[in-house]
């Protein structure tokens, strides 16, 4: 009997190993890398290293960083931490999360996707309008237009697409009943309203 069981066990197919690549893994990891890379300039400028800022960022902001204005330095630190938080959200979208953590992750993923794509598209559209002469900017900003058109705008869009892809794959593969999906929709709607209000009021 022991021999028979041993033979039967040997004949059984080996259990399939869990895939290392989980739903949303690659987009989520891409979003995480994006967030970490984007956090580097914020932390560097907060510490007084304004490399690359003079030619790619508005001179008024560069001056605030170089003069070590307290409130602006604080904003830079907070901005850097938010980008790191975004990286953690990207990582979170590569694993199934239960309870409020999963809902918060999807909420933030949906919000980040809309917020980043929105601002990226605004940078690109404004850059195109300036380049074709349909809109004018202050002389000290004229040299920055192409940076926002060719660097910052596309960079924001790439990050937004990564978060959108990661969140979409997460809810499609790990939330078949759609219980968490609505949190992503609420986050996206909130980001859209926030961005629209910012554009209308000119704040932000």
- Structural class, please? mainly alpha
Helix content: over 70%
Number of helices: 8
What would the principal axes of the Cα set say about the shape?
Answer: globular
Number of E strands = 0
Query: In percent, how much strand structure appears in the residues?
Result: under 5%
SSE sequence, one letter per element: HHHHHHHH
How many strands, which pairing sense, and closed or not: the largest β-sheet?
none
Overall mean pLDDT: 82
Poorly predicted spans:
1-7, 13-19
Radius of gyration: 23 Å
Topology overview:
Layout: H1 2-11, H2 25-46, H3 53-56, H4 59-66, H5 70-92, H6 99-131, H7 145-174, H8 181-201
Helix pairs in contact: 2-5, 2-7, 5-6, 6-7, 6-8
Q: Could you please describe the fold and organization of this structure?
A:
The protein is mostly helical and 204 residues long. The protein has helices at residues 2-11, 25-46, 53-56, 59-66, 70-92, 99-131, 145-174, 181-201. Helix 2 (25-46) packs antiparallel against helix 7 (145-174). The chain contains eight helices and no strands. Helices cover 74% and strands 0% of the residues. The protein has one domain (24-201).
